[in-house]
Amino acid sequence: MSFDAGVPQLAAVAEPVRPSVAEEAKTVVVSAITATLASVGADGPWASPVDFGVAAGRPVVRTFGRDEHVTNLMRDPSASVSIVAAGAQVTLVGLLEEPVDVAAARAAVLAVEGEEMVEEDLWEMDVLGLRWVGGDGRTGTASGREFLAARPDPIVPVAGREVGRLNAEQSGALLALARVLGGCPEAVSAMCVRADRYGLDLAVGLVRGRTFTRVGFARQLDGIDELWPAMEELARRADAAEDGVHAS
Question: At what angle do helices 171-180 and 160-169 cross, to 10 degrees?
Fold first, then answer.
């Protein structure tokens, strides 16, 4: 697995842990209902939107009737599936094959589409690798094995409202976190741009310019109800660290 972490901080970050590339990709993939499938035709690549789902952690796409993809995949199962979400894009590459469990694959697609077709073809991807592109210049690759083993993040898909609350109600605390735990002692403002099971991504205003930093929780979160207690614990850590600096 490789990961380009993006913008560097000004000083050491206390807890820089963040989701792995495979976890980032899995989080995007399990929330998707449509994707762009690219298969290899006799005259070159062919790409088009398809219905999408996930069964037992494996991507499933649905084509119909005499779709160009059906002809292509019968000849060459090599394919890519691209999924775009808010602030992220994932491209999976692998082999599209008949699902191991056809009923589960159909249920995965119907769960998000709610419409059964007579002349449908279901294809399950054996993921060989992926590339993930996130915000702030962060990109990375992961293997198919890492993708299959990864767990999607339970916080990212539902954190939007709580992130808004953090910015509205805890701007001072976020600034302290950026200065003390986020490696940005010269910060003049800080805004949370994302929360995940491991911590917070902060956009930090400096006297000259802007940067991004990371503040990690003491432990992984299992649900959105744990976000505010984790935020309170971060604030206590920042206060303790700041008191230690003043005492010395």
Answer: 90
Helices and strands (H and E) in the chain: how many: 7, 11
**Domain 155-247 is of which CATH architecture?**
Alpha-Beta Barrel (3.20)
CA 209 to mean position of chain CA atoms: 27
Taking the CB of residue 170, how many other CB atoms lie within 10 A of it?
A: 19
Beta bridge partners, 201, equal 194, 214
Query: In sequence order, what DSSP letters do the residues of 155-213 get, joined into one string?
Result: SGGG-HHHHHHHHHH-HHHHHHHHHHTSS-TT-SEEEEEEE-SSEEEEEEE-SSSEEEE
CA gap 137, 27 in Å, rounded: 18
Q: Does 22-149 carry CATH code 2.30.110.10?
A: yes
Prediction pTM value = 0.87
Closest Cα to residue 214, out of 11, 1, 18?
A: 18
For the chain, the domains span: 22-149, 155-247
Structure confidence by residue, pLDDT tens digits, 207-222 = 989 999 999 999 999 9
DSSP code string of 6-36: -S--SS--S------HHHHHHHHHHT-SEEE
Query: Of 185, 127, 130, 194, which Cα lies nearest the Cα of 158?
Result: 194
Q: Write out pLDDT tens, residues 84-123.
A: 998 899 999 999 999 989 999 989 988 766 666 655 789 9
